[in-house]
Amino acid sequence: MSDCIFCKIANREIPSDLVYEDDVIAAFHDLEPQAPVHVLIVPKKHIESLDDVDFEDMEAMGWLMKKVKDIAKDLGLENGYRLVCNTGEDGMQTVKHLHFHLLGRRKMTWPPG
Fold this sequence. Notes:
globular; HIT family, subunit A; five-stranded antiparallel β-sheet; alpha+beta
């Protein structure tokens, strides 16, 4: 999608502080971190939200989930982390491109919001 900021970041049209990238996903530091480590992990294919994941996206989604632990380890989150996916208006999804927040290096509280 041509006007999607996360597509532009994933395609390197907009600079970002990338922590991981391959042909399927990109991971980069959030501009407004909510924890000492706050990274966004996005599929390079534009998918608007978790509600829009289709059968043909399963391989990419599996790969993204598999890479979370590797990215967390590379960021020094051996003591744990939280992975969050906001979906839709009530879920506070502000960018209409599927993304996961990887948060760590502080004690998380519950309930989260």
